[in-house]
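Can't paste images in this forum, so I'm doing it all in text. The chain is below; anyone willing to post the predicted structure tokens underneath?
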Amino acid sequence: MPNVTFSSPQMKKDLTVYAVAGDTKTLLSVAQANKVPVAYECQNGECGSCQVQVQVLSNNRPIGVAMTEKEKTVLRLAGKITAEQIKAAETNDLPSPWRLACQCVLRDEDVLVTF
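Text version of the structure:
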């Protein structure tokens, strides 16, 4: 089970929660279940309001998680990721540093989520 640490100036202190890896719940649903104030609107990857920075907290090679086409487009247009980072994520199976919380499914690795 991965530990997910949420960090934001909107919170009094960082919050670490346990999540079930690969249960198809999104990072946003984990945040909501734990009353973490991650902003969101559409919840389907179109508006981009739930942009979060995700950092893997492990010395192991990070596990890549495929991004949806909507997510790639929204994050690229917002200037959060480049076309080169998208290509690296796809060809080298590396995670993107920015994700949409409504689209990101957790894997079996500890992460720091900053928003």
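The mean pLDDT is 90. The chain has one domain: 3-114.
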